[in-house]
Amino acid sequence: MSSPTHLDFYLEPELLKSAREGKHNFIAKIVEVVEEAGFSVGFNGNSLRERADSVNRPGYRLFHMDEPEGERALTFRRVYHYPFWQIEPTTKRWDWRVANTRFDPDRIDDTEAQRFYGFWRKRLFGDAAEQVTRDGIIYAPLQGRLTERRSFQTCSPLEMLVSTLQHDPSRRVIATLHPKEHYTASEISKLDALAARFPRLTVQEVDMVEMLQRCDYVVTQNSSAAFNGYFFGKPCVLFARVDFHHVAADVYRQGLDRAFETVLAETPDYARYIWWFWQKMSINAGTPKAKNKIRQALRRGGWPV
């Protein structure tokens, strides 16, 4: 028996309020797409209980940044900056369609790519992205769980720092802690011990934009700071799986030695990549094509729209 054509959103409080009032541009476009296909729409909170109960409801479910629960469920998430979005069957960025699609710069119009890249570089970072130097620094934005190796990582964040210092014996490494992460006293103690062991390593509170202006390259597990670095023309070494790996030196795919050998060897075409990643492979909610791309994403999930 087919499921009723009803869509339930599961959203955190602030987003839920905005969606109910019709003030969230991207959600409003999703609503238009499904209503045009004959769906009714409901909005719900995203508490653990509400998400657990969602599997017992008929119809379709759309979550924001939460793992989809049960069948006929998808999740949506901003692609680093507004108004770019993805609708996917998993929260794991490294399993998204874009992550598994080959990037071919030769198929992209350079004039359009340069225009798009220049517009967003100016929009996001003003003149800062043009005021860049290379000061012999590796910028290492840390995320959470400093001593653990999670399933999508090639090593723990602390092991990443050691590998970086060993594979690049001349540059200074400036590591930063994530402002929204909670670090245990044990983690901080081990990080401090590492900095004492390696004089070229320091842990500082410093603005991301300043570091992207000054660094030679970025080393991270999969921090969005590395993606932002593309707007500054700064290459990166990734130690974990992610969706924007195509023009990075990638430890997961290349191995440790090869990643550090290649990170500064070639200059990727960041303009064409950003155009491809955002304009082709993501949903730009600010364009007339947004609803059609939403429809395509829902259809890939098997939804009758």
Automatic annotation (TrEMBL):
InterPro entries per the UniProt record, alphabetical: TagF_C
Protein name: Capsule polysaccharide biosynthesis protein
Gene3D superfamilies, alphabetized: 3.40.50.12580
SUPFAM superfamilies found in the cross-reference section: UDP-Glycosyltransferase/glycogen phosphorylase
Organism: Thalassovita mangrovi
